[in-house]
Amino acid sequence: MAQDRRSSGAPPRRMQLSPAARRAAAARRRKRIRRNRIVFGLLVLALVLVVVLGVRALLAVGKGKPADTSVPDSSAASAPAATPAPAVTTSVDFTDARMILVNNNMGLPDGYTVETQVGDAATGKELQTEAAQSFAAMQAAAQLEGVSLILQSGYRSVEYQQGLFDQQVEKMIKTGLDEEQAREQAKTVVAVPGYSEHNTGYAADILTESYRIMDSGFADTDAYAWLVKHAAEYGFIERYPEDKSAITGIIFEPWHWRYVGAENAAAIQASGLCLEEFWATYGSAAQDTPVPESGSASADGDPASSAA
Ligand SMILES: [Zn+2]
After folding, report:
1. Kind and range of the H or E element at 58?
2. How far is residue 290's CA from residue 182's CA, in Å, rounded to a whole number?
């Protein structure tokens, strides 16, 4: 009999179960139904959540766009984030000799040569030819407004720089340092030969009649104020601004100006970047753009306080 039921596959008939077994079966059924209801309820809840979140996401994407975008804009979700770099002309030619970058980590290229001439007859200091002419024009323009500009220091040959550096090392050795320590200390005061911007011919240390000391006090003179306003017109940029010393590796030097040409100066000034940043942002990727490690800033090799 039992074997027949099994082979036929017919469901067991409840009538054959004892009342206790029937109650147990009913209880199991109720339990199963309850469980199914809970699972179903959870599924519905999950579905509602997905729909709500989906709608919210769509609304968020739609925000900030015209309200009547009936066609979903696929570009909205994948739009690139705003670029942090300011929009600056990319027409700057980084192979232009006037754009040369020299700093603590990047020395003059091998075989570097430059043509120079006197930029300030009163001091006899020289700059690269075009820079010298431009300085003279700037000096004359400032004079017309009653502002004196003095070219305190300009082009320095690598040999001259070597002399300055060696003198500084000697000084440090006399304070009791060994030669290696002395050289390290000297680097914080005088640039290593070939690593001073003055070796390029494009750097000008500019002072004024009433203030002939190369220190941060120059920033309080009318000459500095005039330069901030007009130097770019003559192709000069402030090279070592106070807020960029971690990037340039050089302390604030309000007297140190760098000739790059008027069109380049305008682009750099508009960018708000220092020369290292400008190179790193817009310079050719093919060229190495060493940026000094941030941290200790040193002097750029201007002999300290070389007053008249
Ligand atoms: Zn300088």
Report:
1. helix 19-62
2. 26
Ligand 1 centroid–CA 15 distance in Å is 109
pLDDT tens-digit series, residues 216-267: 999 999 999 999 999 999 999 999 999 999 999 888 999 999 999 999 999 9
Q: Tell whether 164 is covered by a domain.
A: no
Q: Are strands 150-153 and 116-120 parallel, antiparallel or unpaired?
A: unpaired
What ranges make up the beta strands (E) of the chain?
116-120, 125-128, 150-153, 203-207, 236-238, 256-259
Is the torsion defined by CA of 265, 249, 152, 208 positive or negative? positive
Q: Is the whole model's pTM more than 0.70, yes or no?
A: no
CB 297 within 8 A of CB 274: no
- Asked whether residue 63 falls in the same domain as residue 108, the answer is no
Judge if 131 and 74 occupy the same domain: no
Phi/psi for 303 (5° steps) reads: -55, 125
Q: How many domains does the chain have?
A: 2
- Domain co-membership, 36 together with 69: yes
Report the DSSP beta bridge partners of residue 106. Answer: 103
What amino acid positions are annotated as catalytic residues? 253
Ligand 1 centroid vs 271 CA: distance in angstroms?
23
Residue 260 near residue 237, CB atoms below 8 Å = yes
Same domain, 29 and 104: no
Residue ranges making up the domain that contains 46: 14-79
State the distance from the centre of ligand 1 to the C-alpha of 225, rounded, in angstroms: 18
CA 263 / ligand 1 centre spacing (Å):
22
| Claim to verify: residue 133 and residue 223 sit in the same structural domain | yes
| Beta partners for residue 258, in sequence order | 203, 237
